[in-house]
């Protein structure tokens, strides 16, 4: 059985993580960007100079677009994602767990302090309190808070394979929720737990319940659709005895799903050709040709959908428009990588 690919191309990736990764902007002289970069002590945290340059370009992007650009109201949101983006890079590095914990404590405080005083509620735990696993769980929950609406929309319009991909994603978020809840149950003094988790746990749980209910509805819908299609195919084949009835089958299936019929009975075209040939071979009976119908056991190849985004799951439907139409006070000028209607999220207003 092919493994289920991961859900990719969500708004958090499209609006922020991709922008950080692809930025080629340099820190402008005198705008504070270079001073902030020096506070991160990247040489000790990122031995690879390419990674250090990438972090600097990403911060320069924040200064250019958010701090000094047209999207100032979203700077705090961008800094939250910047924190998780750097942490994700560090968690995949070869440094020890102690190095990771100390580095994230310093970087978190510097990211927060370089925003206008008291304006960005990014909870920064003391050094040594955040290991890789719990950090990754926190990141998944924060991304989910930003992406949850579009996941709900995908569940409403996806077919069976898209539903499986969403199910895998939701399962990972459920696990992250349980991990953070367990951690805060035994480490209640952590600032993340006191400043964010205790205040917003119920809201996150409600959002998770929403997508889980959506998943159950999608699974029920796709199962019923598959049964209906299979029943229609089997009934049509059972009644097929002449060339005209074969044509009737194809017409009937067009109202359900012709591609499903063609892959399930892949030898049908040749059978149809033999029966409709003016010089038909009398030695070959219809019953014998019916016996040649064999089911194709292949159902899904993950290599064809290794990168699944909202458009792929929607089967050529416009997914983002269904999510980005919520009223928002965000400015729409400037670069258009962030679609309009994106909620201005941050820990302080979750």
From TrEMBL:
Show the Pfam families listed in the entry.
Answer: Plasmodium_Vir (PF05795)
Polar residues composition-biased segments: 314-339
Compositionally biased region (Low complexity): 295-307
Region of interest (Disordered), residue spans: 274-350
The domain of life is: Eukaryota
Q: What is the name of the protein in this document?
A: KIR protein
Q: Which source organism does the UniProt entry give?
A: Plasmodium coatneyi
């Amino acid at each position: 059985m092919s493994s289920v690919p991961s859900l990719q191309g969500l708004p958090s990736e499209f609006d922020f993580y991709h922008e950080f990764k692809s930025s080629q902007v340099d820190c402008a002289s005198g705008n504070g960007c270079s001073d902030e970069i020096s506070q991160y002590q990247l040489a000790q945290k990122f031995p690879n100079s390419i990674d250090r340059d990438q972090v600097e370009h990403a911060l320069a992007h924040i200064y250019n677009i958010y701090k000094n650009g047209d999207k100032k109201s979203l700077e705090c949101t961008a800094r939250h994602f910047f924190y998780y983006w750097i942490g994700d890079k560090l968690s995949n590095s070869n440094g020890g767990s102690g190095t990771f914990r100390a580095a994230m404590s310093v970087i978190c405080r510097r990211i927060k302090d370089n925003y206008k005083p008291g304006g960005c509620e990014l909870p920064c735990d003391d050094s040594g309190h955040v290991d890789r696993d719990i950090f990754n769980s926190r990141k998944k929950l924060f991304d989910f808070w930003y992406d949850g609406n579009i996941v709900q929309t995908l569940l409403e319009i996806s077919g069976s394979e898209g539903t499986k991909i969403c199910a895998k994603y939701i399962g990972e978020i459920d696990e992250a929720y349980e991990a953070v809840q367990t951690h805060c149950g035994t480490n209640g003094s952590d600032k993340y737990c006191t400043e964010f988790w205790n205040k917003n746990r119920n809201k996150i749980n409600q959002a998770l319940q929403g997508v889980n209910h959506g998943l159950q509805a999608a699974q029920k819908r796709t199962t019923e659709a598959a049964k209906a299609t299979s029943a229609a195919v089997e009934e049509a084949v059972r009644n097929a005895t002449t060339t005209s009835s074969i044509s009737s089958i194809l017409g009937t299936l067009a109202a359900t799903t012709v591609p499903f019929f063609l892959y399930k009975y892949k030898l049908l075209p040749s059978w149809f050709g033999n029966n409709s040939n003016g010089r038909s071979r009398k030695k070959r009976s219809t019953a014998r040709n019916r016996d040649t119908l064999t089911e194709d056991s292949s159902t899904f190849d993950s290599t064809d959908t290794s990168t699944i985004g909202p458009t792929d799951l929607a089967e050529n439907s416009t997914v983002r428009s269904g999510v980005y139409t919520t009223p928002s006070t965000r400015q729409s000028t400037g670069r258009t990588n962030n679609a309009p209607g994106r909620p201005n999220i941050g820990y302080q207003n979750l």
